[in-house]
Each structure stands twice: as C-alpha cells, then as structure tokens.
Amino acid sequence: MERFIIQGNRNLAGTIKVSGAKNAILPAMAACLLTSGKSVLHNIPNLIDLKTMSHLLRVIGARVDNENGSMTIDARDVCYPEAPYELVSKMRASIYVLGPLLTRLKEVRVSFPGGCAIGTRPVDLHLKAMESLGATVSVEHGYINAKTDGLKGADIYFTKSSVGATINTLMAAVLAEGKTRLFNAAMEPEVDSTIELLNKMGAKIDGIGTTTLEIEGVEELLPAEMDMIPDRIEAGTFLIAGALSKNPVTVANCEPSHLTAVLEKLKEAGCELEIEESTITVIPPVSIKPVNLMTLPYPGFPTDLQAQFTVLMTLAEGVSFIEDTIFPERYMHIAELNRLQANIKIDRNIAAVRGVKELSGAEVMATDLRASAALVLAGMVANGTTIVSRIYHIDRGYECIEKKLNSIGANIIREEVS
Ligand code: UD1
After folding, report:
1. pLDDT tens digit string along 266-318?
2. Same domain for 348 and 290?
3. Cβ 160 under 6 angstroms from ligand 1
4. Contact by Cβ (8 Å): 383, 359
5. Is 271 a catalytic residue?
6. Do 234 and 218 share a structural domain?
7. pTM of the predicted model, to two decimals?
8. CB of 98 closer than 6 A to ligand 1?
C-alpha cells in the first residue's frame, strides 16, 4: 500500500496541465463494444479505473491497446456477456457494459453494484430503461440478468437526473428498432461526449446539451476515432489548489465552458480569474470569503468537487454551508479534515464550515477518490506534515497527482508502506 507524505504551507505558482476526462472515457470505451471494428480514443491518461475497464473489455472478448495516450479498442470478437463481481466491485462504472452488451449479444449478466463510500447508489433507473426498451430484467444471486429478442424504441422519463442511466440508455437505444425519446436526461459534458462519439459511429441522436434526447435507431454502427474531453473535475481540483495558494496558478488544457458554476463560486470566494480558450488562471484572494454551496446536476456545481471546495472554505473568514444534494451521505472527508483542525459540523446533511486561521498537519485516511484529492489539498496548505494513507483511491481518477502538483511548488512524496 502507498501513502503520501505532504509538507504543508508551500506556495504554489505556475502552470499545471489537465488530462483527459475519466468519466467521459469510461462510457466511450463501453460504446466501442457497439461496433465490430477498431475504434481509437485519444487523450487517455494513465488511471487505475481505465485499467479496470480495459480488463473488463478484454474479459468480454475485445482487444484493448493503450500506447502514448491513445487507446485502440477492437471489438470484433466480443462474445462473453458478463461483467464479473471482481471487476464491478472495484469500479461501479462497469455497469456501462449493460446497454452495449444487451444490444450486441442480446443478453448480459452484470454483477449488481453495491454501495460505496459516498453512499447507497442504486441502478434502478438503468434497469427500468432497459425494460422500457424491451428487455427482460431480473436480479438473482447478486447479478443483473437482462435478455431481449431485439430492443425497440420507447419514450423514457427519468425520475432523477442520472449521468450513468442516461448514457447506458443511449447506448442501448442507438441500435434499437425505431425512435427513443429520453426526458429529463442528464446534460453533463460526459453525456455530450458520449453522444458525439456515438454520432461519429453513425448513430442518430438529436438534442445534445438538452434534457430531451431523440434517438432514431440505425442498423449498424461503425468504428470511430475521437479526442476525449479534458477532465473538468481535475481542472476544478487544481483551480481550488490555486485559490488556496498565495500566487497565481494557471490550469491549462481545460474547457472553461464546462466549469461555469465552479468559476462562479471561486469568484464568490474572492478569487480573480483570467479565462482564455483552454486555460484559466486563478489569482487567489488575500482573505477567502465564505460561500454557501449546493451540489446539483450539470450545469450546477458538481458533487465531485464538493470535498475539495470544502477545503477552501475551512480557511474562509466566516461560516459556509455546504449541501450535497446528489449524494447526501458524501461527507466522509469531514472527520478527516477535522483531524487537521478544521471546524466542520454536519447537521441533517448540511456541512457548516467555520473558517479557521490555519490547518495543522496530521495523519489522515483517504476514503474515496474525490475525498482523497481534498485531503491532498488540505495537506498542502496545513502547517507541518500531513500523511494521507490509502491513496490507491486517488490513482483511480488523478494521473500522477503528486508529480503535477510538485511541478507547481507542492512537496508531496509517494511512499510504499507494508
Ligand atoms: C457519475 C460519475 C460520478 C459523479 C456522478 C454525479 C462516472 C463514472 N461517475 O456517477 O463521478 O459523482 O455521476 O455527477 O461518470 N440514481 C438513482 N438510480 C439510478 C442511478 C442513479 O437513484 O439508477 C441517483 C444516484 O444515487 C444519485 C443521482 O441519481 O443520487 C445521480 O447519480 P448518477 O448521475 O447516476 O451518478 P453516476 O452516473 O453513478
């Protein structure tokens, strides 16, 4: 197991580059199963979750090669309709093979994803949508079993905005017979990116960037090649690192239009921002202002940046209230931040963050991907040394985070512990 040793109170300055978006790449990899050829995805970072997905696709019969930031997926020999427990338990996004395999092989078995550190995470919307498209779905012995004689277009209303259910349903509907309409679809950039890839493959999806999507089923999809979008969560994490610093930090290779809500909140906290086509420079405030925050579906403030923004608020001059409406139990980082002498209380799923003068280094434990990023940010500004253990969580979704942050002045050492 590895851990980070972080020397705090460092001044960051300079330019840090964002990698491709994990949450756009995972569904893109699954979408490649819908063709019988070789698709190529570019701007691929080195992340554990992408390795897990590659492993799953190989189990299913695809060939996956990843070299120099480009991934080739040859789905000619896809034949095995199962996502086994060992892989789904490592990564919930394995559920993305449900729609493509149901379409391609007419049957699929996916281990039922359990809860995780950020709370209970049901998949009912995915399953209902597959049923609406004409699949028979049952859950037995910990596995979701779905079968069909051929999917047929339908009108589907999502009772909750769900990125995963929207994408899975799109991937099932593109080759279904007739028209499908999705209402209250998620509008996250990762959904748009999947639509763009599917349309490049020959799908007919209208309504990109809106909550109503219309899909006209086609007979066949062909392999495609696409550059993956930059990771807006990684970009947001680095912007918050800049806001916590004393000098300007420039975040490069990002897409500012995907970060509107985050940029608004940084401005409210007192940051100045210089925004160009693919770079954002954050000029930190002399004193951080308290900001109330509610996470919401896109274009609202992303739940995946809630923990990191909370770190910024621990040093604000006043009290901030933070509510995660997407995952109301996503507060595992709070107890760890309080170990660093933050002053945060949780009352009915709202975190009240009373700003303190400084954080004080301590040993803390990473509990999930984004919470780990928050602990790294906190360690970078705390007095003294912070040790973050269980950092395998962070490697799931941040490429070489310590190397990137050290390149702008952080002092983070990765250490193997037995
Ligand atoms: C994706 C992201 C995750 C992010 C989340 C919300 C990936 C791999 N993961 O997860 O990082 O935090 O979007 O932006 O892209 N829900 C149901 N039933 C369902 C599905 C979801 O009730 O069948 C609920 C969830 O519990 C949650 C809300 O809908 O409250 C949104 O979840 P969803 O958008 O589906 O998250 P994921 O796609 O799993």
Report:
1. 999 999 999 999 999 999 999 999 999 999 999 999 999 999 999 999 999 99
2. yes
3. yes
4. yes
5. no
6. no
7. 0.97
8. no
